[in-house]
Design goal:
With about 90 residues, the chain is mostly helical. The protein has one domain (about 1-85). It is about 75% helix and about 0% strand.
Length: about 90
C-alpha cells in the first residue's frame, strides 16, 4: 500500500493521481496505527501522508478519505486474514 501510494504521488509507473495517492497512504496509516513504534513502514507512511496533505486541497483530501473508507469496508476482512497468516 505504501509503494502504491508513493507511485501515484510521483506518477511512477502510473499516471500521477493525488486522490489515489492519498487514499493508499491513508490506508497504510490506518492499518499500521497499532504497529510497533519501531515499525519503519508506519512512520514512512505517516510522513508521506503529512507531506502529501500539504499539497492537496480539502476537497481532494475528502474524496481520498471517502475512497479509503470504502476500500476498507470492502476489503478489511481480507487484509486482516492475510495479516494473520503472515504472523
Amino acid at each position: 500500500m505504501l509503494n502504491v501510494g508513493a507511485d501515484y504521488w510521483e506518477g511512477e509507473g502510473v499516471e500521477k493521481e493525488l486522490v489515489k495517492a492519498y487514499m493508499w497512504l491513508d490506508l497504510v496509516r490506518f492499518y499500521k496505527q497499532r504497529a510497533d513504534a519501531r515499525n519503519p513502514v508506519k512512520w514512512r507512511a505517516r510522513h508521506a501522508l503529512d507531506e502529501l496533505a500539504k499539497q492537496i486541497t480539502p476537497a481532494i483530501k475528502g474524496e481520498a478519505e471517502a475512497l479509503s473508507h470504502e476500500w476498507d469496508r470492502v476489503n478489511r476482512a481480507k487484509v486482516l486474514s492475510a495479516d494473520a497468516i503472515r504472523h
